[in-house]
Amino acid sequence: MKQERIGPVFFQRNPVDCARDLIGCWFEWDGCVGRIVETEAYAAEDDPACHTFFRPSARRFVAGHPAGHAYIYLNYGVHWLFNVLVKDGDMDGFVLFRALEPVAGLEAMRTRRPGCPDHGLCAGPGKLTRAMDIHGGHHAAEFLSRPERGLWRAEPLEIGTGPRIGISKGKELPWRFCAVGSRSLSRPLPR
DNA sequence: GCCAGGATGTTA
DNA sequence: AACATCCTGGCG
Hints:
By secondary structure, this protein is α+β, with helices and mostly antiparallel strands. It has helices at about 15-20, 50-55, 55-65, 105-110, 125-130, and strands at about 25-30, 30-45, 70-75, 80-85, 95-105, 150, 160, 175-180. Helices cover about 20% and strands about 30% of the residues. Strands 1, 2, 3, 4, 5, 6, 7 and 8 form an 8-stranded antiparallel β-sheet that branches. Strand 1 (about 25-30) and strand 2 form a beta hairpin. The chain binds a DNA duplex through strand 3, strand 4, strand 5 and helix 5.
């Protein structure tokens, strides 16, 4: 069951705590709902894997938007990736949404990802944006207060931690968070 | 099951 | 040139 709505204040903390605390929460977007089972944290300072490290435009985004707005970009020319801006004033950054367990709106998700088994519909950062129809048109959007979009607290889940995935620099940091035992992770947690 | 390779656009 | 990915096809 979803509980109270998460507001922008949730993202006025450091990105690592935000990423961890989002595991188990529900993410709703235009009729589709997923339980968050995998996230990663990125830091705006001193993190070579974060866009702010090599993109002036990303640094301008952090400076020019409030905590809780969406940061969405096209990865490998193919996949939209969804992040939430985190601003604590001390340690700013992003949370990347990497995987969800589908909860509602499965019919629409199946239409957008034909042939995919249900548990895999949102099992990856590019997969979840495709399944939920999130794209560059939503970049910079405020989504936490829209009736048909947002985040909700729900039952807490057991959380596992590991190194971030798919990056070439900053691999040491254990800033990937997963719901232990979920079938919908983008990849299993290392043991 | 694993691995290699290609698609594709934006940034710098 | 690099890239916070995904899918397919080849192999066993």
